[in-house]
Design goal:
Layout (H helix, E strand, L loop, with lengths): L8 E4 L5 E7 L6 E6 L10 H8 L3 E5 L20 H19 L4 E7 L1 H12 L6 E5 L13 H19 L1 E3 H4 L4 E3 H13 L11 H5 L5 E7 L7 H9 L5 E7 L1 H4 L13 H8 L1
Parallel strand pairs: 3-4, 3-5, 5-6, 6-9, 9-10
Antiparallel strand pairs: 1-2, 2-4, 7-8
C-alpha cells in the first residue's frame, strides 16, 4: 500500500468551514500527531517542526485555525466564532482527516501556547482523541498564575482586548503586536479564562473544568526559560487541572536550543524541542 502523500489535505468542518491540513508523513510512522498552533499563527510556520518530527518517524499534521492561513474564513463584523467552533467543529474534522490517512497509527495531540490549552480541552471532551498530549510554550493565561510584575498589568489587558475586538469586529492583532485578526468570540472566551482561571466557552455544553480533571493520558511538556507568555507558574497551573495525567516537563534554555528560549524562536530551530517530546 502506498504511503500517504506529503501534500496539503483539504478539510471541511460540519458547518462548511474549509482549510488545508499540512502533513509531513514518513514511511511507516509509529505515531501521528495533530499539532494545534498558537493564537494567530498560521500552520505553515510549523513546517520545520513537522519536518523534524517526520525525520524521527512521527507523522505530523498541522491544523489551521479558523480565520488564518489557508482557512476560507476571516473574522470581521459579519463572521465570528469562539472556542465551541474550534473544539467541536474544526479539530474533530482534522482528526477525521488523519484517521483516513493513517487509520491504525497511534495518535497524539499537541499544541503551542493556546494550541496546547485547547489540545488539553479536546482530550477532556473526547478521551479517545489521543493517547498522549504534547505541549510546547503552553500554560493557562490566568492572571494569578503569572509572576510579578506582570500579574498587576494583565487584568486590565484582559478587559481591554475583548472591548477592542468588539469595536473593530475582530482583534487587530498585527497592529497591537498580539495575535492576529482574531474573532471576537475567541478573544472573549480566552479572556474569560484569563480572568477567572476556568476553561469555558459560549455554547459549550461540557463542563470543561470537570472534564479536565478526568484526563489520564501521558503529557509531555516543554518549558522555555525565556518565555514570558508561558512561564513555569502558568504551565503548572494548567497541568494542575489534570491531576490524573502522567506528566513530564522538560526545561530548555538558550544554550541547549541554540537559539533564544522564548515563545516563538524555537519554531525556527525545533530539533531540541522534538528530542524532548520524544524522550
Amino acid at each position: 500500500m502506498a504511503e500517504p502523500p506529503n501534500v496539503p489535505i483539504p478539510v471541511e468542518s460540519r458547518d462548511g468551514h474549509q482549510w488545508q491540513l499540512l502533513a509531513r508523513i514518513p514511511p511507516q510512522p509509529r505515531t501521528a500527531v495533530l499539532w494545534l498552533p498558537a493564537l494567530g499563527v498560521a500552520a505553515r510556520h510549523y513546517l520545520p517542526f513537522a519536518e523534524a518530527l517526520a525525520a524521527r518517524g512521527v507523522a505530523a499534521f498541522v491544523h489551521e485555525w479558523r480565520g488564518h492561513g489557508s482557512s476560507k474564513l476571516r473574522a470581521d463584523h459579519e463572521h465570528d466564532w469562539g472556542y465551541r467552533e474550534l473544539l467541536d467543529d474544526d479539530i474533530p474534522a482534522s482528526e477525521a482527516a488523519i484517521a483516513l490517512q493513517l487509520p491504525s497509527v497511534e495518535r497524539a495531540l499537541g499544541g503551542h501556547s493556546l494550541g496546547g490549552q485547547l489540545a488539553c480541552c479536546r482530550v477532556a471532551i473526547e478521551p479517545h482523541a489521543a493517547s498522549r498530549l504534547w505541549l510546547v510554550g503552553s500554560g493557562s493565561p490566568y492572571w494569578r498564575a503569572f509572576p510579578l510584575p506582570a500579574r498587576f498589568a494583565l487584568p486590565l489587558a484582559y478587559r481591554f482586548l475583548p472591548w477592542l475586538a468588539n469595536r473593530h469586529g475582530a482583534l487587530p492583532g498585527r497592529r497591537i503586536g498580539f495575535g492576529g485578526a482574531e474573532a471576537r468570540g475567541v478573544i472573549t472566551d480566552w479572556a474569560g479564562t484569563a480572568r477567572s482561571g476556568r476553561y469555558a466557552g459560549k455554547d459549550i455544553d461540557v463542563d470543561l473544568e470537570a472534564a479536565l480533571a478526568t484526563v489520564d493520558v501521558d503529557i509531555r511538556a516543554v518549558l522555555l526559560t525565556g518565555d514570558w507568555y508561558a512561564p513555569a507558574s502558568s504551565l503548572q497551573f494548567l497541568l494542575s487541572k489534570m491531576p490524573q495525567a502522567n506528566v513530564a516537563v522538560a526545561t530548555l534554555d538558550a544554550e541547549t536550543l541554540g537559539i533564544r528560549a522564548d515563545h516563538f524562536a524555537w519554531m525556527r530551530q525545533p530539533e531540541r524541542v522534538v528530542e524532548r517530546l520524544l524522550e
